[in-house]
Amino acid sequence: MQFIEAQVLDALHLKLSQRLALSPGSKVFITITPPEELAAEHEAQAALSAQGLAGAYGDQEPEYSPASITKLNPEFQQ
Question: How far is it, in rounded angstroms, from Cα 14 to Cα 6?
Fold first, then answer.
Protein backbone atom coordinates (compact mmCIF):
# COMPACT_ATOMS: atom_id res chain seq x y z
CA MET A 1 0.00 0.00 0.00
CA GLN A 2 1.25 3.48 -0.85
CA PHE A 3 0.23 6.87 0.45
CA ILE A 4 0.60 9.60 -2.15
CA GLU A 5 -0.37 13.22 -1.77
CA ALA A 6 -2.40 14.73 -4.60
CA GLN A 7 -3.77 18.15 -5.49
CA VAL A 8 -7.40 18.41 -6.61
CA LEU A 9 -7.47 20.08 -10.02
CA ASP A 10 -11.23 19.82 -10.49
CA ALA A 11 -14.08 17.45 -9.60
CA LEU A 12 -12.64 14.67 -11.81
CA HIS A 13 -8.87 15.20 -11.87
CA LEU A 14 -6.01 14.92 -9.40
CA LYS A 15 -2.36 15.92 -9.77
CA LEU A 16 -0.21 13.32 -7.98
CA SER A 17 2.91 14.34 -6.09
CA GLN A 18 4.83 11.39 -7.60
CA ARG A 19 4.51 8.90 -10.42
CA LEU A 20 2.65 5.62 -9.92
CA ALA A 21 4.46 2.38 -10.74
CA LEU A 22 1.30 0.92 -12.30
CA SER A 23 0.41 0.00 -15.83
CA PRO A 24 -2.32 1.93 -17.68
CA GLY A 25 -5.77 0.56 -16.89
CA SER A 26 -4.81 -0.50 -13.36
CA LYS A 27 -7.46 0.16 -10.74
CA VAL A 28 -6.67 2.09 -7.58
CA PHE A 29 -8.76 2.93 -4.53
CA ILE A 30 -8.61 6.47 -3.20
CA THR A 31 -9.37 7.56 0.35
CA ILE A 32 -10.06 11.26 0.79
CA THR A 33 -8.89 12.77 4.07
CA PRO A 34 -9.68 16.47 4.51
CA PRO A 35 -6.74 18.57 5.80
CA GLU A 36 -8.51 19.37 9.08
CA GLU A 37 -8.83 15.64 9.81
CA LEU A 38 -5.13 15.15 9.05
CA ALA A 39 -4.24 17.89 11.54
CA ALA A 40 -6.47 16.36 14.22
CA GLU A 41 -4.98 12.90 13.59
CA HIS A 42 -1.45 14.33 13.81
CA GLU A 43 -2.29 16.00 17.13
CA ALA A 44 -3.75 12.74 18.47
CA GLN A 45 -0.64 10.80 17.44
CA ALA A 46 1.63 13.42 19.02
CA ALA A 47 -0.34 13.24 22.28
CA LEU A 48 -0.12 9.44 22.28
CA SER A 49 3.65 9.62 21.68
CA ALA A 50 4.05 12.09 24.54
CA GLN A 51 2.02 9.81 26.79
CA GLY A 52 4.28 6.86 25.92
CA LEU A 53 7.43 8.88 26.61
CA ALA A 54 6.01 10.09 29.92
CA GLY A 55 5.42 6.47 30.91
CA ALA A 56 8.92 5.41 29.89
CA TYR A 57 10.71 8.38 31.45
CA GLY A 58 8.23 9.42 34.14
CA ASP A 59 8.67 9.99 37.84
CA GLN A 60 8.16 6.29 38.57
CA GLU A 61 11.15 5.30 36.42
CA PRO A 62 14.21 4.60 38.63
CA GLU A 63 17.45 6.50 38.15
CA TYR A 64 20.42 4.34 37.27
CA SER A 65 23.84 5.37 38.53
CA PRO A 66 27.11 4.61 36.73
CA ALA A 67 27.79 2.06 39.50
CA SER A 68 24.88 -0.05 38.24
CA ILE A 69 26.66 -0.71 34.91
CA THR A 70 27.79 -4.34 34.81
CA LYS A 71 29.36 -4.35 31.35
CA LEU A 72 30.81 -1.32 29.57
CA ASN A 73 29.92 -0.60 25.96
CA PRO A 74 33.26 -0.15 24.15
CA GLU A 75 31.56 1.91 21.40
CA PHE A 76 30.09 4.48 23.82
CA GLN A 77 31.66 7.93 23.53
CA GLN A 78 31.10 10.69 26.07
Answer: 6
pTM above 0.85, yes or no: no
Amino acid at 15: K
Buried b (16+ CB within 10 A) or exposed e, 2-19: eeeeeeeeeeeeeeeeee
* Letter string b/e over residues 27-37, b meaning 16 or more CB atoms within 10 A of that residue's CB: eeeeeeeeeee
Q: What does each C-alpha distance from 4 to 17, 18, 38, 74 come to in angstroms? A: 7, 7, 14, 43
Could you read off the pLDDT of 19-50 as tens digits, one per residue?
999 999 999 999 888 888 888 888 999 999 99
